[in-house]
């Protein structure tokens, strides 16, 4: 079986390109993570899900242990300070900030898991990487790319001849179009903050430029470099050392192209005098809700947690895997209009597939069907992969469908649609002992045609909130699975 050539759309060159990792034994990906001051909304869920599919595909193509995926946690930001003051006015600010960020980070990680996403290899926090940020800033100052003015360290955009290449903006556009307030201490209105002074009551770290805190952009330059270069340098191939500090793929939502990613590139390249920060830049499109931009004032602002745990959207809770599929039904670069109808469609589709996959017993090594990975390898064509899944499901529903059923189950698991489903999970591995005994007794009753007894056991378990589901295994023998009733 030939492995498909992965092709990805590169925002930097504006074309779909063959993905050629710098070091195939160490494929390296960085995605900008959340700023942890509030629940993540369903727009934030999109990059989390899209880049999880990319992570899974890369692990499949290059081997799970050959892919490093870093997604950071931004836990220093003025929005966090404001939230801490609002929510915990009586606590010292640093303590209040910690309360806000820890709670939000825990919630975010739980949300991402509920959406069927694997944990990234590393989830570094900005506050654990202040030294790395200061080292980068020092290097930028020393190389003449940054200057100190008015207590701030600023990046000098004019010092980088190709500043603006990612977004296609040039500095004159910025001057004419963006109406950036001209701040007198800046040499150029587009110069951006690397380090700013903190007042006594604000969070701050000592530095050569006084007690202060980092700008947002420098956080990602520092964390990507540390976890995708510094810490793994020793195991990278000689070829990778010909591209020092560079990694393979950088991702995030469309809104991050300018200024965030543009500025990350400026910092990372100028600090070391290199030609590339990342080879491929990927950006997911935006999500709207029922045709409108999501906003608190319009009342259509929905958090991931709202969908999973409350009945605010459509009067019911939605399983994470349904939200996951609803998100993936549209190509990641297109805009999504999120709606109840879309969730219902996703749920119906997912249940069709899962019904067709019912009863397959998977081994750890069972992988996805090539018809699906082929579509994903073409710039993550998940919507086309869905058509391939439909075909497999159709075969699985025929009388002789056992191999297709097995293949469908393995493919759904690979795609992250397993955690909510009794049929695909390994939950029977840790089922409570009384349950195993009850299920065995019921199967014995059924096989002995003692249906009254079998029904009594089913009813007893139902009263405990446990639903039973019978199916035939690949050898045609009757089996039973269980799930917690919703
Ligand atoms: P933020 O916390 O606003 O920095 O956003 C975290 C991630 O979510 C970034 O990659 C954003 O680009 C992405 N994002 C924010 N809002 C949306 C949206 N409405 N649709 C899709 N992605 C979004
Ligand atoms: Zn970033």
Description:
This protein is α/β, with parallel strands linked by helices and 486 residues long. The protein has helices at 42-62, 78-87, 93-114, 130-142, 171-177, 216-228, 238-241, 257-272, 304-309, 320-328, 340-357, 370-377, 382-396, 402-414, 433-447, 451-463, and strands at 7-10, 15-18, 27-31, 67-71, 146-149, 152-155, 192-197, 212-214, 247-253, 278-284, 287-289, 336-338, 466-472, 478-484. The protein folds into three domains: 7-284, Rossmann fold; 287-423, no CATH class; 427-484, no CATH class. The chain is built from 16 helices and 14 strands. Helix 1 links the parallel strand 3 (27-31) and strand 4. It is globular. The chain starts with 6 loop residues before the first strand and ends with a strand. The model is unreliable at 421-428 (pLDDT under 50). Bound molecules: adenosine monophosphate and zinc ion. Residues 32, 220, 260, 264 line the site of zinc ion.
Give the rounded overall mean pLDDT.
92
Cα gyration radius (Å): 26 Å
Number of helices: 16
Distance between the termini: 41 Å
**Count of individual beta strands:** 14
Q: Report the uncertain regions.
A: 421-428
**Beta-strand percentage?**
5-15%
Task: Compile the SSE list and pairings.
Blueprint: E1 7-10, E2 15-18, E3 27-31, H1 42-62, E4 67-71, H2 78-87, H3 93-114, H4 130-142, E5 146-149, E6 152-155, H5 171-177, E7 192-197, E8 212-214, H6 216-228, H7 238-241, E9 247-253, H8 257-272, E10 278-284, E11 287-289, H9 304-309, H10 320-328, E12 336-338, H11 340-357, H12 370-377, H13 382-396, H14 402-414, H15 433-447, H16 451-463, E13 466-472, E14 478-484
Parallel strand pairs: 3-4, 3-9, 9-10, 11-12
Antiparallel strand pairs: 1-2, 5-6, 6-7, 7-8, 13-14
The structure holds adenosine monophosphate and zinc ion (ZN).
